Amino acid sequence: MREFITGNQAVVRGAVRAGCDFFAGYPITPASSILSEFVKVFARGGGVALETEDEIAAIGQCIGAAMAGAKALTATSGPGLSLYSEQIGLAQMGEVPLVIVDCQRMGPATGGATATGEGDVTFARHVTSGGYPLPVLAATDAATAFRLTFEAFNLSEQLRTPVILLLSKDIALTRQTVDLEAIHLSPCVERHPAPAGAVYQPYAVASPGDVPAFSPIGGFQRVRFTGSIHDENGVLTGDRKKIAAKLTHLHEKITKSAGALEFVDEDLDPDAATLIVSYGLADGAAREAVAATRKRGVGVSHLTLYTLWPMPEKALRRAVTPNIRRVVVPELNIGLYADELRRVIHGPTLEPLTRYDGGLIPPHSIIEKIFSPKLGASGRTEFCPCPS
Amino acid sequence: MSIVTARRAEMCYCPGCSHGMVLEQLGQALDRMGRTSANVCIVSDIGCIGTADRYFACHTFHGLHGRSITYAEGISRVQPEVLTIVLIGDGGCGIGTGHLVHAARRNADIKVIVCNNFNFGMTGGQHSPTTPIEAKTTTTPQGAKEHPLDVCSTVAVNGAEYVARCDVFDPRTPERLIEALQTKGFALVDVWELCTAYFVPANHLNRAGLSELSEKLHLPFGVIHQSQAALSKVGSRPPEVRLRSAPEVSTVSPSLPSLAWTGRREICVTGSAGQRIRSAVGVVGEIAVAGGLFAAQQDDFPITVRKGFSMSSLILSRDPIRYAGVDAPDLSLILSTEGAERLLRVMELRPETVVAAGTDVVLPEGVRCDRRVELHPVGKRVGKESSALVALSACLFEAHYFDVPTFLATADGALTGAYRTENLSAISAGAELVKENRCPSPLVVNQ
Fold first, then answer.
1. Which chain A residue shows the shortest CA-CA distance from B78?
2. Which of A108, B159, B346, B382 is the most exposed place for a label (fewest CB within 10 A)?
3. Cβ contacts of A182 on chain B, cutoff 8 Å
4. Closest approach of chain A CAs to the CA of B201, in angstroms?
5. Do residues A90 and A51 touch, judged by C-beta distance below 8 A?
6. B242 at the A interface (CB within 8 A)?
7. Per-residue pLDDT tens digits for A356-378
8. Which residue(s) pair with A349 in the sheet?
9. B109 near B229, Cβ under 8 Å?
């Protein structure tokens, strides 16, 4: 059945489908309706929805709840993600399955509360101290917000890690036509349970990158949780071998799974000279532009990234077919992700198409970019809202 | 086996530090209560007392500074049978004051034990929120000048069930701890201690000095607050949580009349907050989707709520909509002057755009209007708050976007919620408005 729902409603539906039973959040535009929607949904039972005193408490309660066995989600916008920062580090170190939704808005600071922007794409990757990776996904519309919320839970459960899902104001609050039943989802994943009976070692792994088995706080097996550097028993350690093993593990459990983490749409034309790489809000316009370009008889390749981090390098390399000369990256920020792509795309020129005045990148500006590249010294094209 | 696994002398604390005493007393209290390791969780904050979790043979959680209260509340909500105890220092009560107060307000079912030694021990004896006036610390060499935080009164006046202040050497302290642990809901015990590394030598404090300090600061020892519920041991604990039990609500869609439609059209309605612009557009979108079309609604509004412009665009299409932005609408309905101004700033009115406007709207220079919609009589009939939907329906019908009977039938099957009747009346009123032909020059829409 087709429904007319916002991206935020789709997030809640995806979360409930994944078995989410704990939500805590603090009101902030444009994420607030996730909070009110969870309050509505859980009023019928099935979970706890909570409005806390601030963002730090919201994610703190989610971390406690997740370690007690709940599937937890919290949602905020850029200013709140800034406040989550330290707690995200705790969730990484303590290997907490947790989904964090960032409904981006124009930044920095309070920026534009009701203005769109996607400037958190690199912040989400480097959101906490220490430099260890965490998966970051980006929805392009309400349908993918539903699907990726579900998949974010799967990843967080499978890898025992916080996962960040990015939306932005014009995905979060825009109502779109979605048939949720028709959306293909992976089988629902639950965290790997510790075998009963034996003494539980909360952080024991066979080799770095494996995921420790889970037993809830409050269960029969004693759980020792800590945000400090610890050994397999959750006890503070100064043993450098154990320290290295733990931190290598934090890194490798994400990078080892990088293949499974690559959510992309590949719409490639082997003869194309131009590749569009898009994510988030610019993706819909890119799809329109690609369709229009092909209608004019010109080949073009298109790669949609739903996984931003770890960067889907395999998919990117596949997309840069031998004839590709230019890679156009439309994004609603100063060209953040295009800069990151320079690390893996070497031959073709990288051409960011940026807009950050609160408006969208319309299809025609991508089409213009495809047909008449106007390169500045930096290869950067800024969107001009007034057609020249 | 006791829940506390180490003796005081074996713990990592400085000689003479009171932390070990508190932990021993807490262990004895838990043992006396018959609590087993599986139904207790110690949540330790940061600082010297933050190291205490290692001495407990139960669930333990060691997190970030001041945030221990937040984890404890999350744990207790999911595992209400687990006795969740926070061990926090005076520093933690400072950085986490907000959490402390709000957990008390919510009557979170957690027990907070404040190991209060009036300074930051681990980081070098800096002053803390509870440092007494005139006390010397490494950051108050001339004596502290700030008023010390009264932790007990703060939570007591904000909803805590049980609050006590103790001197760690007082033989009644274990009793206070048991009372707190047996309380259903939020309980706090502020235990005054000696920090022999810094505060004691800098201020010549000793056991007797704790009582003198209590008198001097007018912060008495004893039970500070006990609610009636805590006294009767009934408690006003939050309702038990039912987890993962609710089936997903699936709505079965009745078969509704399909709406005839070709191509893709973009509509923009703009006006002011309070005119229910976004609701009106949303209603049309819902009906369109129920009638088999694809719709996308994108809103534009400032941070103000009942002030300022309110604009909403709607794309209707036979095919899926990839790009939800509207840059140059086919049909534009303007319901206030500030709405018109916003529209002109972010969209383009092309010569082929059909423009309708309320009769009272002063249009900015250069904006032509194909159609004036007389809203006042309509407002009288269906209520002023519905006039945006009336006007929008009228435009859609007059522009032959929809056939009236089919649209009404689809609306009747599609609309739900508190405003269903109101919205159906508004759409009917829109249809009547067109029938009455209040407008001398009907809309002609280029297709």
1. A65
2. A108
3. none
4. 30
5. no
6. yes
7. 999 999 999 999 999 975 544 45
8. A326
9. no
Asked if A62's CB is within 8 angstroms of B295's CB, the reply is no
Q: Are A3-182 and A265-382 in the same CATH fold? A: yes
Residue of B243, B256, B345 to mutate when probing chain A, most A C-beta within 10 A: B243
C-beta atoms of A174 and B296 within 8 A: yes
CB spacing of B295 vs A223 below 8 angstroms: no
What is the DSSP code (8-state) at residue A356? -
What residue of B is the nearest CA neighbor of A235?
B54
Q: What is the pLDDT of residue B367?
A: 84
**With contact defined as beta carbons under 8 Å apart, do A50 and A77 qualify?**
no
- What dotted CATH number matches B8-231? 3.40.50.970
Radius of gyration of chain B (CA): 34
B264-435: in CATH 3.40.30.10? no
CB contact under 8 A, B243 and A70: yes
Map out the domains of chain B as residue ranges: 8-231, 264-435
Q: Which CATH architecture has domain A3-182?
A: 3-Layer(aba) Sandwich (3.40)
Q: Kindly report the CATH number that applies to the domain delimited by A265-382.
A: 3.40.50.920
User: Which residues, 6+ apart, have CB-to-CB distance to B218 below 8 Å?
Assistant: none
Write out the E strands in B210-308. Answer: 222-226, 264-272, 294-300
Mapped onto helix, strand or coil, the DSSP state of residue A55 is helix
Chain A and chain B share a number of CB contacts under 8 A equal to 220
pLDDT digits (tens, 9 = 90+) for B263-278: 999 999 999 999 999 9
Strand ranges across the sheet with B309-317: A3-6, A175-178, B294-300, B309-317, B264-272, B331-334, B354-358, B371-373
Cα nearest neighbour of A175 on chain B: B297
Q: Structural domain boundaries of chain A?
A: 3-182, 265-382
pLDDT in tens, A120-169: 999 999 999 999 999 999 999 999 999 999 999 999 999 999 999 999 99
Of B394, B335, B13, B29, whose CA–CA distance to B183 is shortest? B29
B241 pLDDT exceeds 70? Answer: no
Read off the pLDDT band of B230 (50, 70, 90).
confident
Other beta carbons within 10 angstroms of residue A288's beta carbon come to: 19
**Strand extents, DSSP E, B1-91:** 40-44, 59-62, 83-89
CB contact under 8 A, A3 and B289: yes
